[in-house]
Specification:
globular, mainly alpha
Protein backbone atom coordinates (compact mmCIF):
# COMPACT_ATOMS: atom_id res chain seq x y z
CA UNK A 1 0.00 0.00 0.00
CA UNK A 2 2.81 2.40 0.90
CA UNK A 3 4.48 1.75 -2.47
CA UNK A 4 1.26 2.70 -4.29
CA UNK A 5 0.91 5.92 -2.27
CA UNK A 6 4.52 6.90 -2.92
CA UNK A 7 4.48 5.96 -6.60
CA UNK A 8 5.79 8.96 -8.59
CA UNK A 9 3.16 10.80 -10.68
CA UNK A 10 5.52 10.58 -13.65
CA UNK A 11 4.92 6.83 -13.79
CA UNK A 12 1.20 7.41 -14.30
CA UNK A 13 1.92 10.03 -16.95
CA UNK A 14 4.24 7.67 -18.80
CA UNK A 15 1.65 4.90 -18.71
CA UNK A 16 -1.00 7.25 -20.05
CA UNK A 17 1.36 8.47 -22.77
CA UNK A 18 2.12 4.91 -23.86
CA UNK A 19 -1.54 4.01 -23.84
CA UNK A 20 -2.56 7.01 -25.95
CA UNK A 21 0.29 6.35 -28.37
CA UNK A 22 -0.63 2.67 -28.67
CA UNK A 23 -4.38 3.32 -28.99
CA UNK A 24 -3.92 5.83 -31.82
CA UNK A 25 -4.96 8.95 -29.91
CA UNK A 26 -1.99 11.04 -31.00
CA UNK A 27 -2.34 10.07 -34.65
CA UNK A 28 -6.06 10.91 -34.46
CA UNK A 29 -5.22 14.29 -32.90
CA UNK A 30 -2.61 15.07 -35.57
CA UNK A 31 -4.99 14.02 -38.34
CA UNK A 32 -7.73 16.35 -37.14
CA UNK A 33 -5.29 19.22 -36.55
CA UNK A 34 -4.15 18.86 -40.15
CA UNK A 35 -7.80 18.80 -41.23
CA UNK A 36 -8.42 22.12 -39.47
CA UNK A 37 -5.34 23.67 -41.06
CA UNK A 38 -6.40 22.44 -44.50
CA UNK A 39 -9.89 23.88 -44.04
CA UNK A 40 -8.46 27.24 -42.94
CA UNK A 41 -6.03 27.26 -45.88
CA UNK A 42 -8.86 26.39 -48.30
CA UNK A 43 -10.99 29.24 -46.95
CA UNK A 44 -8.11 31.72 -47.28
CA UNK A 45 -7.30 30.64 -50.86
CA UNK A 46 -10.97 30.70 -51.90
CA UNK A 47 -11.62 34.14 -50.42
CA UNK A 48 -8.46 35.61 -51.91
CA UNK A 49 -9.42 34.20 -55.33
CA UNK A 50 -12.96 35.57 -55.06
CA UNK A 51 -11.61 38.95 -53.91
CA UNK A 52 -9.13 39.18 -56.79
CA UNK A 53 -11.08 37.84 -59.75
CA UNK A 54 -14.80 37.94 -58.97
CA UNK A 55 -16.20 40.32 -56.33
CA UNK A 56 -15.40 42.09 -53.09
CA UNK A 57 -15.98 39.51 -50.33
CA UNK A 58 -17.77 42.01 -48.08
CA UNK A 59 -20.24 42.73 -50.88
CA UNK A 60 -20.59 39.00 -51.56
CA UNK A 61 -21.43 38.06 -47.97
CA UNK A 62 -23.73 41.06 -47.60
CA UNK A 63 -25.65 39.92 -50.68
CA UNK A 64 -25.62 36.27 -49.56
CA UNK A 65 -27.01 36.89 -46.08
CA UNK A 66 -29.03 40.08 -46.63
CA UNK A 67 -32.48 38.53 -47.08
CA UNK A 68 -32.12 35.73 -44.50
CA UNK A 69 -34.48 35.96 -41.56
CA UNK A 70 -32.33 36.15 -38.43
CA UNK A 71 -34.78 34.25 -36.26
CA UNK A 72 -35.09 31.48 -38.83
CA UNK A 73 -31.32 31.13 -39.11
CA UNK A 74 -31.00 30.85 -35.32
CA UNK A 75 -33.81 28.25 -35.24
CA UNK A 76 -32.23 26.17 -38.00
CA UNK A 77 -28.89 26.29 -36.20
CA UNK A 78 -30.41 25.20 -32.89
CA UNK A 79 -32.25 22.28 -34.50
CA UNK A 80 -29.12 21.27 -36.39
CA UNK A 81 -27.03 21.22 -33.22
CA UNK A 82 -29.61 19.10 -31.40
CA UNK A 83 -30.15 16.65 -34.27
CA UNK A 84 -26.71 15.27 -35.16
CA UNK A 85 -25.26 18.57 -36.45
CA UNK A 86 -26.11 18.25 -40.13
CA UNK A 87 -24.93 21.82 -40.97
CA UNK A 88 -21.34 22.98 -40.25
CA UNK A 89 -21.45 25.60 -37.45
CA UNK A 90 -18.71 27.62 -39.15
CA UNK A 91 -21.24 28.79 -41.75
CA UNK A 92 -23.28 30.36 -38.96
CA UNK A 93 -20.19 32.00 -37.47
CA UNK A 94 -19.54 33.59 -40.86
CA UNK A 95 -23.22 34.63 -41.01
CA UNK A 96 -22.87 36.40 -37.65
CA UNK A 97 -20.38 38.77 -39.27
CA UNK A 98 -23.28 40.59 -40.95
CA UNK A 99 -24.06 42.20 -37.59
CA UNK A 100 -22.30 45.37 -36.50
CA UNK A 101 -21.09 43.54 -33.38
CA UNK A 102 -21.00 39.79 -34.18
CA UNK A 103 -19.72 38.59 -30.80
CA UNK A 104 -23.08 38.54 -29.00
CA UNK A 105 -24.39 36.40 -31.86
CA UNK A 106 -21.35 34.14 -31.66
CA UNK A 107 -22.03 33.81 -27.93
CA UNK A 108 -25.63 32.87 -28.65
CA UNK A 109 -24.54 30.29 -31.23
CA UNK A 110 -22.05 28.83 -28.76
CA UNK A 111 -24.66 28.49 -26.03
CA UNK A 112 -27.18 26.95 -28.44
CA UNK A 113 -24.57 24.45 -29.60
CA UNK A 114 -23.78 23.57 -25.99
CA UNK A 115 -27.48 23.09 -25.23
CA UNK A 116 -27.86 21.12 -28.47
CA UNK A 117 -25.20 18.72 -27.23
CA UNK A 118 -27.16 18.22 -24.01
CA UNK A 119 -30.33 17.55 -26.02
CA UNK A 120 -28.46 15.00 -28.17
CA UNK A 121 -27.09 13.37 -25.01
CA UNK A 122 -30.63 13.12 -23.58
CA UNK A 123 -31.97 11.66 -26.84
CA UNK A 124 -29.21 9.06 -26.73
CA UNK A 125 -30.24 8.06 -23.23
CA UNK A 126 -33.87 7.67 -24.40
CA UNK A 127 -32.93 5.68 -27.50
CA UNK A 128 -30.79 3.38 -25.36
CA UNK A 129 -34.00 2.03 -23.82
CA UNK A 130 -35.30 0.89 -27.25
CA UNK A 131 -33.29 -2.30 -28.02
CA UNK A 132 -33.76 -2.52 -31.81
CA UNK A 133 -32.96 1.11 -32.53
CA UNK A 134 -30.16 1.11 -29.97
CA UNK A 135 -28.54 -1.93 -31.56
CA UNK A 136 -28.76 -0.45 -35.05
CA UNK A 137 -27.20 2.85 -33.97
CA UNK A 138 -24.47 1.06 -32.00
CA UNK A 139 -23.46 -0.81 -35.16
CA UNK A 140 -23.84 2.29 -37.35
CA UNK A 141 -21.58 4.37 -35.10
CA UNK A 142 -19.31 1.57 -33.92
CA UNK A 143 -16.18 3.60 -34.65
CA UNK A 144 -17.35 6.54 -32.54
CA UNK A 145 -18.34 4.25 -29.65
CA UNK A 146 -14.91 2.62 -29.80
CA UNK A 147 -13.15 5.99 -29.50
CA UNK A 148 -15.27 6.97 -26.50
CA UNK A 149 -14.38 3.69 -24.76
CA UNK A 150 -10.67 4.11 -25.53
CA UNK A 151 -10.20 7.81 -24.77
CA UNK A 152 -13.18 8.77 -22.61
CA UNK A 153 -13.44 12.45 -21.81
CA UNK A 154 -10.53 13.42 -24.07
CA UNK A 155 -12.52 12.34 -27.12
CA UNK A 156 -15.46 14.49 -25.99
CA UNK A 157 -13.10 17.48 -25.75
CA UNK A 158 -11.74 16.75 -29.24
CA UNK A 159 -15.27 16.49 -30.63
CA UNK A 160 -16.13 19.83 -29.01
CA UNK A 161 -13.09 21.60 -30.47
CA UNK A 162 -12.39 19.91 -33.80
CA UNK A 163 -14.49 19.34 -36.96
CA UNK A 164 -15.92 16.11 -35.56
CA UNK A 165 -19.75 15.68 -35.50
CA UNK A 166 -20.21 16.89 -31.92
CA UNK A 167 -23.94 16.21 -31.70
CA UNK A 168 -23.39 12.65 -32.91
CA UNK A 169 -20.73 12.09 -30.26
CA UNK A 170 -23.06 13.50 -27.58
CA UNK A 171 -25.82 11.18 -28.79
CA UNK A 172 -23.54 8.14 -28.64
CA UNK A 173 -22.17 8.90 -25.18
CA UNK A 174 -25.74 9.38 -23.99
CA UNK A 175 -26.52 5.89 -25.24
CA UNK A 176 -23.43 4.62 -23.45
CA UNK A 177 -24.64 6.19 -20.18
CA UNK A 178 -21.57 8.38 -19.83
CA UNK A 179 -21.59 10.33 -16.51
CA UNK A 180 -23.80 13.35 -17.16
CA UNK A 181 -22.07 15.69 -14.68
CA UNK A 182 -18.69 15.06 -16.28
CA UNK A 183 -20.17 15.52 -19.74
CA UNK A 184 -21.63 18.90 -18.72
CA UNK A 185 -18.18 20.18 -17.72
CA UNK A 186 -16.36 18.75 -20.73
CA UNK A 187 -19.03 20.17 -23.02
CA UNK A 188 -17.95 23.71 -22.07
CA UNK A 189 -15.09 23.30 -24.54
CA UNK A 190 -17.80 23.57 -27.21
CA UNK A 191 -18.39 27.19 -26.22
CA UNK A 192 -14.65 27.88 -26.36
CA UNK A 193 -14.58 26.48 -29.90
CA UNK A 194 -16.94 29.15 -31.23
CA UNK A 195 -14.81 31.99 -29.92
CA UNK A 196 -11.58 30.45 -31.25
CA UNK A 197 -13.10 29.80 -34.68
CA UNK A 198 -14.73 33.24 -34.63
CA UNK A 199 -11.36 34.90 -34.10
CA UNK A 200 -9.83 32.83 -36.91
CA UNK A 201 -12.68 33.25 -39.41
CA UNK A 202 -13.16 36.96 -38.74
CA UNK A 203 -9.42 37.42 -39.12
CA UNK A 204 -9.46 35.59 -42.47
CA UNK A 205 -12.47 37.54 -43.73
CA UNK A 206 -10.74 40.80 -42.84
CA UNK A 207 -7.70 40.04 -45.01
Amino acid sequence: MQEIINRPPTNNMLRRHRYYAKSGFYSFLIKNTIKVLVIVAAIIVTLLAVEKWIIDTDVFFEYLFRDLNNGLVIAVFGISQALLGFIPPDLFIIWSRKFENPWPIVSLLAILSYIGGIVSFSLGMKIQTIPRISQYISVRFKNTSSKVRRWGGLFIVLAALFPIPYSTVCFIIGMMKYPFKLFIWLGLFRILRFFIYGLVLFGILSL
